[in-house]
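::Amino acid chain::
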Amino acid sequence: MIPAQIFDQITDKCTEGLALALACDDDGAIMELQWCNTAFTRITGYTYDDIIGRRGTILIGSSMEQGDHLLIIEKLMNWEHFSVKVLNNRKNGDQYWQKMSWVPLSDAATGNRWWLCSLMELEDRPRETARRRPTPVAESDQGLLADYVEKIGRLEKENARLHELAKIVAKESNEDPLTGLSNRRHFEVELKSWISDLQRGGPDFAVFYIDLDRFKSVNDTLGHDAGDRLLISVASMLRKLTNDRDLVARLGGDEFIVLRPLGDSALKISGLADAIVQEMHAPYSFEGKSTFCSASVGVAIATSKMDVPEQVVADADMALYHAKSQGKGRWSFFTEEMHAEAVATKRLVSDLLIACEKHEFVPYFQPLIDAETGQIVSAEVLVRWVHSRLGLLPPSAFLETAANMGILKRIDEITFAALPDVLASFDSAGVDLPRLSINISAGRLADPTFIHDIKSSGMDPQRLTIEILESVYLERIGDVVHWTLGELRALGVTIALDDFGTGHASVQGLLKIKPAVLKIDRQFIQPIVRDETARALVESIIGIGKSLGMSIVAEGVETESHAQFASAMGCDCLQGFHFGKPMCADDLQARLVETRGEFWHPRTELAGSRRVNRNY
């Protein structure tokens, strides 16, 4: 094997121009140049990039005589080793005499056939190529000339075919096959061009990031053919709303993007965003069936003053996210506040991952009070994050981000793992805490290992209540969830339905879930002191729950009046700030010691006035 250093010296120091071309198996005259040395570029005037990938015809200049050209083609077609001395042209058109030699090569390993071409520049016109007087063409040569012409015609047709094929490939590489819009690759190339133009003093431009809000439901309800038809119609709509100066692309799935020069009026930008949103408000029909699929749009502007104009697409994406968070079916313009929020979210994501590794999540406890006796019957576990920099953070500061990250299950695991030690500490101190209730995420509920964790924790299942959100449960209802609920009941764990009325509230839902405890959301409890309609609604919910054998908990009890009204209407247990805000385990233990577990003194006329159902 030739050492690489020697081969490099051949490339740089050899004065003879050398090039390698990969040839077509069927015709040696059809080839593509793959390599050349420095001398080859110096002699021809072409750069390395000019040569690589080009057809061998790049070496045939306009000054070469037709007879010499035909001779070269014949020799190449027949795979002959040959040399010619011809008048040729460099890239800039200058004429020069050269000796051109061709050597056929083959690769036994792959079967590929190659040409080695060598060029030598001649200082003087060679004798054998001195100007010849025209001579009559012999009859025997006429057949040869006709053969040459036929072969040239065939080569020209092949070259034309390859050229058309190249155009098709180029088009397909830039075009989305479904919609005919630019694809992601072409958009990225064009974006770089627009940014380069911007940095050279070109116009500012807007980016419209478009996402269909309910595209998945179209696929689910009408089928993927309907989904494809919808994407095609959206592409048609975008073509109608834009002009030749705009770039319209489909990035993939149901995401589209538009680039538009800013021009002299911001109305042209807001007008396009408005038009897209309005066009998508119309119902979509497919084969006699209709559905609704709106669009959200994020808009951002790229200007020459931006330090990183490439950020404009990410800015538009942030604006799109904001539009969706505000209710979808609308458009939003990027602001610096969005950028700051995005930066904070990225920091929060990083901190949450670290918090999971360091187990920085701790349980806090809010008491549930017996409406008849005022004694504590349970404490709801509410997670808090002991942030190393920001201090103690409530769930509202991180749970939504944690859900988007898919780490709620891990936070549940960390919080639940602390509970057996809490109960053991209360028991060893002689403090009565009858049970704990904990809200479980949908992912944790659908995890078969959850049952194993309860069994192996050492915690008495009879002292545990699992709270689930009705809306979450109905979204995840399935075999695993049914199995988990059945196993929990078999262990003696109590099932509670949390925040009743905020999800898909229905008697059918209650029958599916079959909870032992029904917790009425605080938004229904808050107005009962002054609003008779609200009281009637709460009484109806209590009646439904009681008829199904459930204990009723009133959430959001913040005043004495709330407590008295909820108790009088038949709620079994009360929970809210009136009895105490969420507190750490030590504070709860101290409170229980101080009060002997009694958090409230109900009116004597209410105590013992009714028979209540106590599942706690």
About this structure: The two ends are 84 Å apart (CA to CA). The longest helix spans residues 139-174. The chain is about 45% helix and 20% strand.
